[in-house]
Amino acid sequence: MAEVCEVFLNVYDLHDSNGALHTVGMGFYHTGVEVRGWEYSFSDSGIHRTRPRLPEFGNFREQISMGIYTGSISEVNNVVTSMGCERFAPGRYNLTSLNCNHFSDALCQLLTAQRI
């Protein structure tokens, strides 16, 4: 029997100016994808799997449901491992062209077919 769970996008404020910038649709944000009690995110050192909503990511702003995933946590880990060997390998991070938000978008697409 397939396992079903909800996938979440966790959004963090990276700068105090987000309070004002968020009201006009702008800001500096970190994102991570939460699946089955684990959060996956990307930085210069590669992909990380941690407990959700840790304060070192920034000030937690909101959690957005991205849809339903059908599969095991080991299947999620296989997808993430594959991503970390290719596009999201350590040292590939770029502030504007390949950051945590690009990773979150790619993982959400693979798990739920939804873009962030």
3D structure, described in words:
The protein has helices at residues 18-21, 73-85, 100-112; strands spanning 4-13, 29-35, 38-43, 46-50, 59-70. With 116 residues, the protein is α+β, with helices and mostly antiparallel strands. The model has no long low-confidence stretch (mean pLDDT 92).
Secondary structure: elements and pairs:
Blueprint: E1 4-13, H1 18-21, E2 29-35, E3 38-43, E4 46-50, E5 59-70, H2 73-85, H3 100-112
Antiparallel strand pairs: 1-2, 1-5, 2-3, 3-4
Descriptive key words:
116 residues; alpha+beta; five-stranded antiparallel beta sheet; 3 helices
Mean pLDDT: 92
Regions with little confidence, pLDDT below 50 for 5+ residues: none
How many alpha or pi helices? 3
State the order of secondary-structure elements, H for helix, E for strand. Answer: EHEEEEHH
Strand order of the largest sheet: 4-3-2-1-5
- For the record, give the distance between the C-alpha atoms at the N and C termini, rounded to a whole number: 29 Å
The rounded Rg comes to 14 Å
The proportion of residues in beta strands is: 25-35%
Q: Which class do the helix and strand fractions yield?
A: alpha+beta
User: What is the 3D form?
Assistant: globular
| Quaternary status | single chain
Major sheet characteristics: 5 strands, antiparallel
Number of strands: 5
Helix residue percentage: 25-40%
